[in-house]
Amino acid sequence: MKILIIEDDLSFQEILRKALEQERYIVEVAPNYRTGLIKLSDYTYDCILLDINLPDGNGLSLLRELKAMKKAGSLIIISARDTIEDKVEGLDLGADDYLAKPFHLAELLSRIKSVMRRGNQGGDQFVRYGNVKVNPHTFDVWVADTKIDLSRKEFDTLLYFIQRPTRLVSKTMLAEAIWGDHFDDVDNYDFVYAQIKNLRKRLATCNASIEIVAVYGMGYKLIEN
Fold this sequence. Notes:
Elements: E1 2-6, H1 10-22, E2 26-30, H2 33-42, E3 47-50, E4 53-54, E5 57-58, H3 59-69, E6 74-79, H4 84-92, E7 97-100, H5 105-121, E8 127-129, E9 132-135, E10 140-143, E11 146-148, H6 152-162, H7 171-179, H8 190-205, E12 210-215, E13 219-224
Parallel strand pairs: 1-2, 1-3, 3-6, 6-7
Antiparallel strand pairs: 4-5, 8-9, 9-10, 10-11, 12-13
Helix pairs in contact: 2-3, 6-8
């Protein structure tokens, strides 16, 4: 799952980035309003951490821009401003949560898991499709009642598809979601092909009732056999 941190305090931004990467999130950062708006326009994120006080604009205005784009994803405001008015305005504008600074990292991680569980899983602990279920936060996967082991990228790829069953996913969308900014530096999508091939083989070996199928010239989709 991919998270964008929009935070101008670079030392705090780095603390957040390292903590989230330790939780196996793909993390991208923006130090100001302008960079945040560019990233939100160009990419999609599972969760956004947004500071209100940015050097070149108000975070609440950026939240308005995001909602106008009608992009999916959860958003948590992280701010030193702790008034009831700020909280109400942020939540009314569409934020999923509001966390006042200073806060413990453990609380932030818990809030992230909570908003993404509500947004992507309808409150369920698992994401399910066919006879496969995935726990996004413990990184566990079951086929029927058997737990299986996947590599990190195999898990991330499966989670991305199982949260979007039957939806067409292009190679670019998948690379952006699983590899983040780094995929812009590669010349081809061989790494995507290899990951899909490995995951298909793992699912077939475990008798999963779901399959990732290629849609010629367009991408892939997850279907139930």
